Amino acid sequence: MHKSLATLVGVTTMVSCMVDEPAVEELTPVSYPTTGSIERLDPRLDAIVPPDAVIEVLSEGHEWVEGPVWVPELQSILYSDIPNNAVYRWSEGEEASLWLQPAGFTGAIPREGESGSNGLALDAEGKLVLAQHGDRRLARMEAPWDAPASRFETLVGEYEGKRFNSPNDVAPRANGDLYFTDPPYGLQGGNEEKELDFQGVYRLAASGSLTLLTDELSRPNGIAFSPDQSILYVANSDGANQPVVMAYDVESDGGISNGRVFFESWGDGMAVDQEGNVYVTGPRGGVLIINADGEHLGTLLAPPRTSNATFGEDGSTLFVTANTRLVRIRLNVKGVGF
Fold first, then answer.
1. What is d(CA 8, CA 3) in angstroms, rounded to the nearest whole number?
2. What distance in Å separates the CA atoms of residue 160 and residue 261, rounded to the nearest whole number?
């Protein structure tokens, strides 16, 4: 090859490689405002909450947020704004945005009360399940993740021919069963009939059969499983009359037994990490961290009020819905399922 041609080819090849090689973009970390504080009651909390951990405010300005769930397909948190009958989406580096509306009430005539969805969960197929206050049912969204729409399949809407009060929170089990609570918070007060004379905790089996597990709690609310799913936790949100977090053994047939007080405090939503620690929202405007033995190790204080929590991102981030805000804190432990 002629020397000048060889030189030209070499230069061209070098330029081509330089053009084809993708530029590496360095992302600037987003800085979020912080809030609240961490109350450390036991030295064992240090293994869970890093000494430099802070509570970050990711989104604010909502009316009342609840029921967060991490969606791997979206790499996002979805959460309910109940009064606005909507589900919002938050992703790292992006502002929260409206993702689904209506989310809990699909009727044509506007209603009063808490209309929207509350607890959100992913079923065994990875589809979105919503505890819908307004429609008084447990439903599954039929639309795909990349094109969300208010098209819902009713999973269950009544017990023994009577409509639910307002399904509140959902805990999926690995075998496809869905456990859920049904307090009356979504009813329209005197403008809507309460058909059941109790507040239940239910199991909807993967086969479609429905079982009432207990009707002994005045306001069953948050619900979650221990890491091996042998224990079911249910938080009662009746602080005045029955302030307890209950624990039940899960039997081989899916039923529950041996109900006992796990921790003496009212509670709202809950989350559980791989070590068996239980995170109970509500009391003192924060998140109680209680170990598997029922010992209170500390509190994540994010006033004025917290409603629910879930783990997401790499599994070590706890997301908390807190009144009008979505907040998070990075921990040393990972949530169940990660």
1. 9
2. 29
